[in-house]
Amino acid sequence: MRIVDAVHATPAHAVTEANVASYWRDGAVLLRDVFSDDWIASLRDGVEQVRADPAEGYHWYAGGPGEERVFFNVSRSWPRITAFRRFIWESGIAEMTARIARSPFVDLLWDGVFYRTEGLDQPTPWHQDAPYWPVEGDKIVSVWMPLDPALEHSVLGFVRGSHRMGHFKRPSFRDGGRSPHFSAGDRSDAIPLPDIDAGASGFKVVRQAMNPGDCLVFHGFALHGSPGNKDDARKLRAVTFRFAGDGTTFVERPEGTSPSFGAGVFRPGEPIGGELFPRVWPQPPIAI
Ligand SMILES: O=C(O)CCC(=O)C(=O)O
After folding, report:
1. Per-residue pLDDT tens for 139-188?
2. For ligand 1, which residues put their CB under 6 angstroms from it?
3. Which of 45, 76, 42, 46 is nearest to 58 (CA)?
4. Residue 153 to residues 149, 159, 225: CA-CA distances in angstroms?
5. How far does the chain reach from its first CA to its final CA, in angstroms?
6. How far is ligand 1, taken at its centre, from the CA of residue 132, in Å?
7. In this predicted model, what pLDDT tens digit does every residue of 34-84 receive, in sequence order?
8. Of 6-15, 24-33, 55-64, 78-87, which gets the smallest average pLDDT?
9. 114, 221, 236, 239: which to mutate for ligand 1, most atoms within 8 A of CB?
10. Which domains are assigned to the chain?
């Protein structure tokens, strides 16, 4: 299904009320063919810059800087990667996300890069994002986009309805989730993660092949995970753009957060915003 065509001026106009309802019912919605080849090419240049010039805060889950075989993740590259800033401010992604979140505005949280070279099949374990993050609210939304074709055996999946299943214990990302849950910092009522890949009852996984230009929009409490790149012939480079709508507040976590912004930047309970989390919709253009 092509949801953006010549009559649609921006990705937001292509989002139907049915898409929005799916997002709120399931905790995620897959939108096809939303962003043009030009945007994808520009984002690919951006992630190659991110790979070629690593800075602080990279998580090297396999390999390391300069190595041929890598899986790394890094958050918040937009301040130094022009292609990401252009995409965030000019592609219409922020307006689209505000519409899906049913929010009058969205602030940018940060971007994320998940970069796997050919055949690097280390998974990203099933997890919810918000419990790792320094923010709280019901309108925390990620837009995940593959920059290479992602077949069903390699693509990010989510558990239908998991954004309303409560808080789960957080796995470590280090070894694809095989190591035990963090020993500290989970809420006292956090639920142990069942074996979702083994077909745990009540945990319906939705996973559909995606092409560059498609995006999976998911809620901060949706359980999601990736099997890794099973494809020996191509990389699997993905970007995620994270946004927050009304009602999102800053929170401190005794065990720290990922990403982390240092102590005292905001007071707990304070709305986010300012230069760290700029208002990207609606927003006057900035100098790119
Ligand atoms: O692409 C991946 O491996 C994981 C993506 C993810 O967890 C996210 O975008 O929050």
Report:
1. 999 999 999 999 999 999 999 999 999 999 988 887 666 665 565 678 88
2. 112, 114, 124, 129, 142, 144, 156, 224, 226, 238, 240
3. 76
4. 11, 16, 12
5. 33
6. 13
7. 999 999 999 999 999 999 999 889 999 999 999 999 999 999 999 999 999
8. 6-15
9. 114
10. 14-281 (2.60.120.620)
Ligand 1 centroid distance, CA of 74 (Å): 11
Q: For residue 182, how many other CB atoms are within 10 A of its CB?
A: 15
* Ligand 1, atom 1: closest residue by C-alpha: 114
Nearest-atom index, ligand 1, CA of 112? 9
Closest CA to 246 of 116, 110, 102: 102
Tell the burial category of 56 from Cβ atoms under 10 Å away from its Cβ (0-12, 13-18, 19+).
exposed
Strand partners, 150: 210
- What six digits make up the tokens of 126? 């099933």
Task: Please say if the pLDDT value at position 286 is more than 70.
Answer: no
Is 6's pLDDT higher than 50?
A: no
Q: Ligand 1 centre and the CA of 201: distance in Å? A: 23
Q: Does the pLDDT of residue 189 top 80, yes or no?
A: yes
Distance between Cα 239 and ligand 1 center (Å): 8
Q: How far is the CA of 275 from the centre of ligand 1 (A)?
A: 25
**All residues at 6 or more sequence positions from 67 whose CB lies less than 8 Å from its CB, including other chains:** none
Whose CA is closest to atom 6 on ligand 1? Answer: 225
